Amino acid sequence: MGHAAMAATAVRCLKALGASGASGASRAPIPPVPPGADRRPPVSPAEVRRVLGNFPSGVAVIAARDEEGPAGFACQSFSSLSLDPPLVLFLVGRASASWPRIARAGAFCATVLGGEQGGLCRAFAVSGADKFAGVAHTPAPVTGSPLLAGGTAWADCVIRAVHTGGDHLIVVGRIEALGTTGDGEPLVFHRGRFRELRAPEGPGSGSARAG
After folding, report:
1. pTM above 0.85, yes or no
2. pLDDT (tens digit, 9 = 90+) per residue, 145-187?
3. CATH number of the domain enclosing 165
4. Residue 100: CB partners within 8 Å, gap ≥ 6?
5. Number of domains in the chain
6. Cα 165 from Cα 15, distance rounded (Å)
């Protein structure tokens, strides 16, 4: 499927989300709410942010190019989803000004930021500014989306699906090309600030395995 068709698919997803609150994709049945759960006071967004901020994450810039030029935003939720087919996902707020332009493009490039790019991350976290002013980037090899210089890795993707997730959207992309751009350390965000990544020392410092 070409980029134009992918863009049309993403726009249809947006329209469906606005009209019905669902992306039209098949969903697993939602289990019943445990007895008494609806009587507990709701968890505040501030408390969710405070507690889940203990989970460190990398940072990527999700960028695309539409008829107006480049658009993008900093994203902590970029993640690998599937090896076969090769899929990634990211989350974006429903109020994002960049997302409609990325959806229209139907494609994006995710640049995983390096440890020295905290300032660049802050610039891409601001809404309404000219985020690409003075930022070196080249067209990604398949989609032509902006691939930022100085990152540690990148993935050039087309949008495959959009799902609802509360006040965010879950965007699934299929990887068309990817690569690394150096052996530097990644940018890490933890408890509201950037951190330095250090290798563990001593016993038990081997790699973890997924269950």
Report:
1. no
2. 999 999 999 999 999 999 998 889 999 999 999 999 877 788 8
3. 2.30.110.10
4. 14
5. 1
6. 16
